[in-house]
Amino acid sequence: MSTTTTPAARQVQPAEHAHAAELAFLAAYDDGPRPPGWRLTPRAVVTFIVGSGGVALELPRSARRDDLPRTLTVTAKFVGERALVERCVVTLAGERGLLLVGEPGTAKSMLSELLSAAICGSSELVVQGTAGTTEDQLRYGWNYALLLAHGPSAAALVPSPILSAMRTGAVARVEEITRCLPEVQDALVSILSDRRIAVPELSGTADATVPAAPGFTLIATANLRDRGVSEMSAALKRRFNFETVGPIGDLAQEIALVQRQARATLERVHAPFAVDDAVLEALVTAFRDLRAGQSVEGWEVERPSTVMSTAEAVAVASSLALAAAYFPGDRDVVSLLPGHLLGVVRKDDPADGAKLLGYWDGAVRRRAEDGARLWRRLWELRDVLTD
Ligand SMILES: Nc1ncnc2c1ncn2[C@@H]1O[C@H](COP(=O)(O)OP(=O)(O)OP(=O)(O)O)[C@@H](O)[C@H]1O
Ligand SMILES: [Mg+2]
Fold first, then answer.
1. What InterPro entries does the record tag this protein with (predicted)?
2. pLDDT tens readout for residues 227-246
3. Exposed end of the chain (fewer CB within 10 Å): N or C?
4. Whose CA is nearest to atom 2 of ligand 1?
5. Among all ligands shown, which has an atom nearest to the Cα of 112?
């Protein structure tokens, strides 16, 4: 019987399953030195995340195997500066904590998932930070039935994902760390400096401390719109390298990403993707103009207080594509765009609908007057925003 398990159908595959073929290829492709506990070399981790730039990588003759293709073009997953990804990888190779900070929807979680999948083969050792997160969730808890029946023992201990990562030398992730209370966050200080967790209930036994195996490290993410990183204790801040993840700089790259991700959403539900490139371009342009407070032409735009993230743009593009797939011929997709934009713009402040109207009366009208057909159509749809 085969020992490999086929992952069951899931709405979302973890990165290590979704990209298993690329990870296996890269492990064979680059057999250079790896930090302790790493499955890939630091360079291969970076290639996995930012892609091979459209170039097909060829396995060296000595590394060829029947279960691997001879050549493979590694897809770009995170769109952004290669230097940023390199810095993240170097931080982790030094077994330091990595804190990814940025506005919502800038792919911080995605980057942390890709890094952990590439480095240790698992992105699933994760704690989701909330206002209700307790120290137990970062350290360990107990199976109370066993605890009451037999007293404290290694068998009754319920490890947190972080403790599991320490045992196996893996990468643990803490999502939205700044949403945890500062005193709870501080449980990580001793984990990151002493590299062990003490279990006083088991003192006197071999299980009284759990040391971290080589390779253990931590990636945390923090959203700048939540309670800020400024409230983190100085002791904890010092144990992390901070990296700021920003929005995608290049229009064409952002359009391509939005299209790729929206297509993937439609593929998951087996529906055809039928949204014109021009519509996607208008959608992404509007997002970028509103995000930046300035149109591509340099005209001033009033910024809504919500972030207008790429993640939201992907969600709108997917909705347009789903509408086109499930209600074909009912309406043209363009006519749905202003309503979706309004929904996003109003998320933080309902009064921001007026700012979108201002964008219509400014940039959209001027583009329409310049004769661009799609923008003319969008200008005609202005009424949608005034209801
Ligand atoms: N630079 C980028 N590269 C690739 N995908 C991106 C990028 N920016 C945004 N995305 C898209 O945004 C989605 C959401 O990203 P993710 O949830 O990782 O963001 P986040 O920064 O963790 O947001 P939040 O702060 O709200 O948790 C990704 O799955 C992807 O579709
Ligand atoms: Mg996130």
1. ATPase_dyneun-rel_AAA, CbbQ/NirQ/NorQ/GpvN, P-loop_NTPase
2. 666 688 899 999 999 999 99
3. N
4. 79
5. 1
Ligand 1 atom closest to Cα of 248?
Answer: 1
| C-alpha separations of 320 from 6, 63, 106, 263, 340 in Å | 33, 45, 21, 11, 9
Contact 100, 219 (CB under 8 A): yes
Of 36, 25, 11, 88, which is closest to residue 59 (Cα–Cα)?
Answer: 25
- Ligand 1 atom closest to the CA of 314, numbered from 1: 31
225 CA closest ligand 1 atom index: 25
Residue with tokens 């086929």: 6
What ligand has the least distance to the C-alpha of 317? 1
Longest dimension (CA), the chain: 81
DSSP alpha helices (H): ranges in the chain?
A: 15-18, 20-29, 42-50, 82-93, 108-120, 135-138, 144-150, 161-168, 182-185, 187-194, 234-237, 251-268, 277-292, 310-326, 337-345, 353-359, 365-369, 373-380
97-102/157-159 β-pairing: unpaired
Å from CA of 209 to ligand 2 middle: 32
Coil vs helix vs strand at 114: helix
| Per-residue pLDDT tens over the stretch 26-40 | 999 999 999 999 999
Instruction: Determine which residue's CA is closest to atom 11 belonging to ligand 1.
Output: 311
Amino acid at 82: R
CA–centroid distance, residue 60 to ligand 2 (Å): 37
- Is the pTM of the predicted complex or chain greater than 0.85? yes
Residues having CB closer than 6 A to ligand 1 are: 78-80, 102, 104-110, 221, 223, 248, 257, 261, 310-311, 314
Could you report the per-residue pLDDT of 302-346, keeping only the tens digit for each? 999 999 999 999 999 999 999 999 998 878 899 999 999 999 999
For the cut 90, the answer to whether the pLDDT of residue 47 exceeds it is yes
In tens, the pLDDT along 70-107 reads: 999 999 999 999 999 999 999 999 999 999 999 999 99
